[in-house]
Amino acid sequence: MMASDLYAENSDVLAIFFDLDNTLIQTRKADARTCSKLVEVLQQEYGLPQDAAVESATTFLRAFRARPDDDTYGLDEWPAHLWRNSLPKNYRHIAKNISAEWINLRFKNLALTNDVIHLLETLREDYLLGLITNGPSRAQWQKIERLGLRKYFDCLLVSGDLPWEKPDQEIFLEACKKLNVEPRTCIMVGDKLETDIKGGKEAELGGTVWIPLQKDEESSDLPDFTIEKVTELPEVLPNSPKLKRTIAKVC
């Protein structure tokens, strides 16, 4: 079944579910940009040699991506711990300061762009919106609160609070239940084939929209649509002129 055929049969889209990281916010790019800036800070303000600054930031980012939170530490204490383990021994006393700079600069880089804000505000006029994100509860809710995301969504689900995570169909069905909509009337938008797209299909949602993290990434679990960035989403929604033209050609 072609994507246009799918929407021709299920044109009553009521809800759109979004992934968070690397879909609505560019987490990997923002984190890399933040660490790049901290390399400069480590050199200019604390006197680390360039090689040591780069190695420290690279080691930190690798560890943080592998484990963004550890609930045996305070939420802001965990990155400080990772920085302490990443810095050369004679610079570990600055870990707390560098961690504070990491947190502040990171959330500036993670902030929703004006285009994405406009997208969400516009979509809310016609659709229910849900956020479905995998990850540790504290770390994901910190993003949601610090970035002011609550006001854009009718439903927010973080896998760390639940018995399931994407691609388990139950997390998608839970979102449908909270919004009182049928799965066939919902669309899932995300960057990961193995979680967002596979899970959306297994939950029998009305459609899936994939935003590849890398342009050369290939899809085995074929999404119904592929777009380059989330702001292109209106181009593949049922009421868009582009989609109507596609359906007309197929029919």
TrEMBL record:
Q: Which organism is it from?
A: Diatraea saccharalis
Superkingdom, taxonomy of origin: Eukaryota
Name of this protein: N-acylneuraminate-9-phosphatase
Cofactor(s), by name: Mg(2+)
GO molecular-function annotation terms? N-acylneuraminate-9-phosphatase activity
Output one GO BP term: N-acetylneuraminate biosynthetic process
Q: Which CDD domains match?
A: HAD_Neu5Ac-Pase_like
Stored Pfam families: Hydrolase (PF00702)
Identify the keywords attached in UniProt to this record, alphabetized: Hydrolase, Magnesium
